[in-house]
Amino acid sequence: MTQRISVIGTGYLGTTHAVCMAELGFEVVGMDVDTEKITKLSQGYVPFYEPDLEPLLRKHVESGRLRLTSSYAEVADFGDVHFICVGTPQRKGEFAADVSYVEDVVEGLAPHLRRQCLLVGKSTVPVGTADHLAQRVAELAPAGAAAELAWNPEFLREGFAVEDTLKPDRLVIGVSSDHAEQVLREVYAEQIAAGTPFLVTNYATAELSKVAANAFLATKISFINAMAELCEHAGGDVTMLADAIGYDDRIGRKFLNSGIGFGGGCLPKDIRAFMARAGELGADQALTFLREVDAINIRRRTRTVDMARECCDGSFVGKRVAVLGAAFKPNSDDVRDSPALNVAGLIQLQGAQVSVYDPKAMTNASRYFPTLDYADSIKAACGGAHVVLHLTEWREFRDIDPVQLGEVVAQRYVVDGRNALDVGRWEAAGWTYRGLGRGVVS
Ligand code: UGA
Description:
- The protein has 442 residues and is α/β, with parallel strands linked by helices.
- The chain has helices at residues 12-23, 35-42, 53-63, 72-78, 100-109, 129-140, 161-166, 178-187, 189-193, 203-234, 238-246, 267-280, 289-311, 339-349, 362-368, 378-382, 395-398, 402-406, 423-428; strands spanning 5-8, 28-31, 66-69, 81-84, 117-121, 147-151, 171-174, 198-201, 320-324, 353-357, 373-374, 387-390, 413-416, 432-435.
- The protein folds into 2 domains: 4-201, 3-Layer(aba) Sandwich (Rossmann fold); 238-435, NAD(P)-binding Rossmann-like Domain (Rossmann fold).
- It contains 19 helices and 14 strands.
- It is globular and about 70 Å long.
- Bound molecules: uridine-5'-diphosphate-glucuronic acid.
């Protein structure tokens, strides 16, 4: 029998998972307590920008393979496998993760579970959460032991969400029974047949594999950004340094791009929640290095502000600053903990008039940071600017003609916060180019 799938929480992760499960051939119900989101999705609209997702959503909503609801009773009645995909944001004023949305799902769904089914957590949670939730399912579900829990962390990247879900580089499942493993082997049969590594483990290891992966990625980025700091003092070029060490395949060149550092809804909050959880477990010393990872990351933002100020003769007062990029990374309209907007905000507070342009993130940026000025094109953002800051490496920005842009600015200073522009072209067009960690660049 083919499993019927429900996906609870239709944010980034849930919408992508629901659509991809439908694409894999399953009957799917997506559920969210936010009825506005459900209405939009039922009409075929994805409420955020993710390449390839909307056409697939439309295809499966139209075929009827993917339905949407806001009723737990309906979900419980329909699904054999219930994926939990709600968010676990950073708690206000603390480092720890807020797992209340995950708890709400279990409290809301479990009392309706009257037949055999498997709940599968995909959200990023502090280690130990699954154990606690499994107990709650046992206490609340009328189905008793026939309602089980598994943990199956998600490793998708924004901008590649569909590809990463359909063709993941690995699948990790934390289970407490052979039956749960069997069910997930059926759900992921296509990926397993295609050779995707399938790791079966306990809850704790599955939960940890997600935060450990994000902590490693954050550490890698902060490592190269620490090297950038050194290069600034020693006269080295961090981009060349990254190439030089990245050719060693034990190190690898991926995630060694230096610049204004990491942001987004995952890496920053996940390393903080990981530290908080380690403290609760009495293992805080194991992760104190992540404090440094976080500190290096934040220092890159203030360094970018300093560089921009230097281009404005030491003071932002009365100066115009153009900011190219608002999303936390290209191919996304996500502005959560965006380094670009953080830098833009800091500069504005120091007296400059800041004009921001981003190809996709303007609506989100102006909603969350309404006090910045937003321009509707690169040229409009850069008009009369004393310095242009390149803070999100969209293709559109890399393709800028520096000769033409040079005609609209007040002075030709560019700070490349992503070390992604072609230095030679910009310098040939009369610009003073400054990259982070590129002490040797003239
Ligand atoms: C990250 C992880 O890469 C995913 O594997 C994980 O599933 C996801 O978090 C999650 O926890 O849900 P994502 O937040 O989409 O994915 O973004 P990344 O591509 O990891 O980029 C994070 C930040 O690091 C961005 O601000 C990016 O600009 C920055 N970055 C990335 C660098 O500064 N340098 C690099 O070399 C790479």
